[in-house]
Each structure stands twice: as C-alpha cells, then as structure tokens.
Batch of 3 targets.
Target 1
Amino acid sequence: MVTMNKTDRVHATRELILTAAERLYAEHGVLAVSNRQISEAAGQGNNTAVGYHFGTKADLVRAIARRHSAPIEELRQRRLTEIGGSTELRDWIGCLVRPVAEHLATVGSPTWFARFGAQVMTDPSLRPIIVEESLSSPSLVRIVDGLYRCLPDLPADVLAERTDMARQLLVHMVAERERALAEGTPTPRSSWHGAATGLIDALVGLWLAPVTAHPNGGIAAGGAAVRSSVGAAARSRGSARGGGRSPRDKR
C-alpha cells in the first residue's frame, strides 16, 4: 500500500478541485457554481476546501487557466521555431490556432477547458484574468506581432475590429467542438487537426477580407500608422486566440 505524505495529499486534493471546478464551470457557467458544489464534486467532505486551497473564485479561475497555459505555451514556442521569420499570414494564424487544438487532442475527450474559457470570457468580472494570463505569454505576444506585420496596410480601426472578431471565432468555435464531442453529437471535422485547419482557413479569410470605405469616402490611416500601433495593440489584445496554404499545414 502506497502512503502519500502531506505534500502529495495537498497536491492530489488541489488537482481534484481544479478538475471538478473546470468541468462545472464549463457546463454551468462560473457564477452558477458554488464552492460547495465544487467540493462535493471533488469528493471533499469539507465544504471550505476550495477556499482553503485556492482562496477566492478569481484565484481558482486563474489556477485553472494556468493549469493549461504551460503546455499550450510550449506548443506555441515550437511552432514559432518552425516558422522563423515567415511573412505568410497563414503561418502566424496557425501558431495561434494549432497549439490549442493539439493540447485538447492530447488531453483526450471529454475536455472542458475550451468551454471553461468561453464561459469566463463572457463574464465581465473574470474576463480580465484570462486577458492578464494571455499578456504574460511571450509566445502569444510574438505571434500577434508577427500576424500584424503581415497586414501593414490594414487600417488601425479595422485591425482592432478584426482582432475582436478573430478572438470570438477562435474561443467559441473551439468550445462548440468540445461541447459536441462531450455530448457525442456529430462534428463537421473528424479530428482536432482538421478542425484547426478549417478554423485557420476562416481566419485567413477574415483577416484578408476587403475593407469597405467609411461613409465619408475615406478609411482610417493605414500603413505607418498601423505599424506604429502594432506593439501596443498586440499587448492590449493579447487574449486574441487567432495567403495561400502553407506547406506546414499539411503536417
């Protein structure tokens, strides 16, 4: 019989709580789930276990996000090494999309992280936590910088608008696939790799779509103005989860 020491028991308890909280938050929403429900789902007789181990609900949400950020960060870094200084928009979008898909494929089904992220991103009080965690990712900042460099002539206001669109598409399409897999309902693509390819196709189209002129006949300043705002935009919008097909997509 294996006996765990106190440190091992604490770690095991924290893992049980994190798993239970991630699942319940994903399935029911963060505000609809109490610490008592999480403790019960984690098999903890003490209803104060969540507060004891994690503190506030915000602290627990941050811990769940960090549980997944390390493996995703490693996958992003690998992608960045592969593409080097690419000038292909598709390469940079692939760096944004594929690490998340690969991580979820590795975790196995059912997963809850994508739906957890979608729930948190719609909560005004908790959304800043995900944004802060994204801003702490060196690879994500580099990816957004690289993506923006592929779009030097896109007007600044359109760049900001499409960044928001790309974030919504990535967050919610990944969550929708995860939900379908958990419920056993059909999905358009048979694998996470295929789903990532479809999402990359859509995001390339979104970023390269024509820009309609403003009603006054002009558009916001592009070119140098956009390039000068890239650094700030990449960091302030670091939570964004986002030409022709790159050979790397065929892997």
Note: The chain has two domains: 1-55, 64-250.
Target 2
Amino acid sequence: MHENPKHPEASSGEVQSPPSAVPASVIERSRLKAPSGLHPDASLVLRMMPMPADTNPIGGIFGGWIMAQVDIAGAVQPVRIARGRVTTVAVNHFTFKQPVSVGDLLSFYSRIERIGTTSITVHVEVYAERNPATPEVVKVTEASLTYVAIDANGRPRAVEVDLDTDARGGEAHDD
C-alpha cells in the first residue's frame, strides 16, 4: 500500500472502519410513495425534474414541455404491449390542473384504458412533489392518448395480445 497525501489517515497499516449506516428514518424519508387516489392499475413509468430551460416567459414550466413528457410516458406501456414501435395518433383529452415549477419532482403514472386491433389507449396522470421541507404531492396534469402499433414501414399493424396471459380490459375492440 502507499501513502495518500490527501488522506494521511488512510496510510498503510491502518484499518479503515466501514462508513456509518444510514438511519432507517432517513432512508424512509427519501422514498417516494404513490399518491393517494391513484388507480390500482397505474404504473410509474417516468420521473423527471423540470429545469430552468423548460420555463415559459412568465416563469412556469412550459405546457408544451409537459405535453412532450406525457407523450413519452404514455408510450412506455404500449411499446411493451405491442412488442415494437408505436406512434401517437390522438390526444383524446389533456388537462392542466395546476402549474408546474422548476424543482417540482414529477411522477408520471399510466394505465391502459383500451386495447384495439391496432391501437392502445392510455390514461396518464402526473403528480408533482413540491416543497421538500414540508413535502406535498399534487396532481398537476392528466391526459388520455391513443397509440397505434406500426411496422418497419410505418404502417399500422395488429397488436397481438395473448388473451390467456394478457388482459384487453374486457372485450376486444375494432379500430
């Protein structure tokens, strides 16, 4: 071993003690919990913190930035279900419930609303965790988007769902 001039206490021959354990209360405080009222079928698909570059001229987070993140989050489950590429074909509804600020920690939850022959409709809810000193979680956005499975040429293709292992949320729908 060699001497470390920056840390003389780490010289050869000395036994280093392991770092002290992190108290359980600190670990528990660092964990993010699902918001109350969240649908039981919803899955966390994306977590982001908007930055100053994402602000609009009046200082809030630009709505278009939020819409783009919702589109990304909304596509996660359809890509898995379709086992391939999907494209957004419709924003069925989109509601901004509260403004989003720099430093809010956004959690995007999605759940499948419907699976058709070629399409998958997803409901996305966005929650902001704010005020780290006294945390509060609020729903800031919700939306419904429809994606279509596409082939290598960009043409719609069937979403193949094994009804024995996957649920279509009821009966199959024609697109």
Note: The mean pLDDT is 86.
Target 3
Amino acid sequence: MTTKLPCLLLLAATLALADDTAKGPGAAGKTCPCCREIPGAAFTRESLYQLDARFVDDAGRPFSLGSLRGRPVVLDMFYTTCGYACPVAVTEMLAIQGRLAGAGRARAAFVLVSFDDARDTPAVLAAYRAQRRLDGRWVLLHGDGEAVRELAALLGVKYQRGADGTYAHSNLLTVLNPEGEIVHQRVGLQGGLDETVAALSGAATRASP
C-alpha cells in the first residue's frame, strides 16, 4: 500500500494537469476546492490563545499570542520603569530559563507584556531587552489599553495606574502549556521556583517537536 501511494499521487497530478490543459489556458490558474488552505485546529476552550487582542513586539512587528502555540510559555505582566517587583520577577524568569535543560530550554518562551501602554513603546521594550540581556527566546509585547485589560482579566492579574505613573499590580508568573492553557501560577515574589520549573518542564514534554 505504501509503495503505491506516490504512484497514485503522480497519476492524479498528471490527470489534473491534462484536464486543465483541455479546458484552456485560464483554467490552470483557478483554485481547486480540494487545494484550498485548511485552517489550523481550533484552540481549546481553556486556551488563552482564543484572545483576539493584538500586540506589537519590541521590533515593532504585529504579534498574536496564538503564534506561541506549540511552545511551553512563562508569562509575566510588568512595566519597564517598575522599581522593584518587576525587575525581581524578570530575574526569577531568567533563573527559571537557566534551570531548564535540553529540548525544554530550547522550546520554552518567556513573555513579558507591559501594563504601560503609553510609555512602554516597542523602542522602550527593545532597550529593556538589551539592558537585561534577554535572548531570542524572550518576547516583549506592547498592547493598547483594551488588549492589556483583556489579558490581565484572563490571567487574574489586577493593576492600577497611580497619579505618578507607577502601577500597583499583582505579582503572578503564569505557565502555559503548548495549547495556551494555564497549568501553573506562582503568586508573589518569593519561593515557588521549583514548582514553576517543574510545571514548565512538564509542559515542554507536550510541546510539538
């Protein structure tokens, strides 16, 4: 059966070409219904990737959270001018990255989404990447106010901008499996890294090769 399949495909292609030629020069350019692009599988009901909000990365490129599908993810909401909590969270994410091994480390994505849609422009995020020496496995995202609010609501993150431009916010590291489902959340700034690394490593085993 296996050896016959390539021959049958070649025969089908030959017959299709002959049919297009018989119909005239314009026929070959028409799209056959069987050749239309098949959309990817729908996201699961629990997937954050159902969120339709659009973001922009630190290179100024449009970014959809759904493009992370297939990878284990650590996600944190932050802002670049945060004086204490956010730098600590990023340092802990770097520690998590350093503790991953092999394929798990290569597949994992580390995502920072800014609360500060007014000041944390792509250029500011790019400078922050350079300052913290974040490699290509890190994704830094800017979104408008609505996109940030929608994502924060799904994650259970609370935040409020003060009159001085600082933000009071939850400190919550979230691990997503390759389908974008929340599999672990570390609350606060101290401890819990072992559990977070274990959750991320477990999610990595489900990632597509």
Note: The CA atoms of residues 20 and 28 lie 5 Å apart.
